Amino acid sequence: MGKEHLAAVCGLYCGACVTYRARRDGNAERLEQLVEAMKAFEPMSLDDLQCDGCLAGGRLTPYCQKCLIRICPDDKPGIERCSDCPDFPCSRITAFNKDGMRHHAEVLDNLRRMNEEGVTAWLEAEEKRWLCPQCQRPVEWYARSCFHCGTEQPRRLPKLSADKQ
């Protein structure tokens, strides 16, 4: 399988997802942190935190299993991602883009870039973007330091209007 399954329906890059990265990197401490944080919303165990990527057709995190954006194309022939849809950008993807989560704040731009550059080129750029500049290993969206080498990470996600300078 190529990597197209890491270009989510909504425009997120699954390769930098905290759950995806923690599983792929074998970061048990991060997985425990995620389980504890998510237990505040629903019962959760380590076994629940499995994900192969949005479009892999396999395991999905609990939040992606319930995602209405992910299943939206199911009844729309020829539509794989939001950017393929004649209704793009619809109110659902626009609201997701503005929900206060930094990694969601770039989905509209990501989807437009996928259309302009092609999914493969977009994925190559995202894969490079989410590498530690020191050890060249993958990092997650919110990593302050690299799990592999400990190097402090630059801020890659957009600032939100609610952010303090």
Task: Tag the structure with descriptive keywords.
7 helices, 165 residues, mainly alpha
CA radius of gyration is 16 Å
Give the count of structural domains: 1
Let me know the number of strands.
0
Proportion of helical residues: 25-40%
Span from first to last CA?
42 Å
Give the ordered list of helices and strands. HHHHHHH
Largest sheet: none
Number of helices: 7
Structural class: mainly alpha
Uncertain ranges: none
> In percent terms, what proportion of residues is strand?
under 5%
The average pLDDT value, as a whole number, equals: 91
What form results from the Cα inertia axes? globular
Would you give an account of this structure?
By secondary structure, this protein is mainly alpha-helical. It is 34% helix and 0% strand. The chain has helices spanning 18-25, 28-38, 62-65, 68-71, 91-97, 107-117, 119-129. The mean pLDDT is 91.
